[in-house]
Amino acid sequence: LRAISSRQRFELVKNIKGKLKSKPLRRVWIPKPGKDEKRPLGIPTIQDRARQALVKSALEPEWESRFESTSYGFRPGRSAQDAIARIYSSINKGEYYVLDADIAKCSYREP
Question: Which pLDDT does position 1 carry in this prediction?
Answer without folding.
Answer: 44
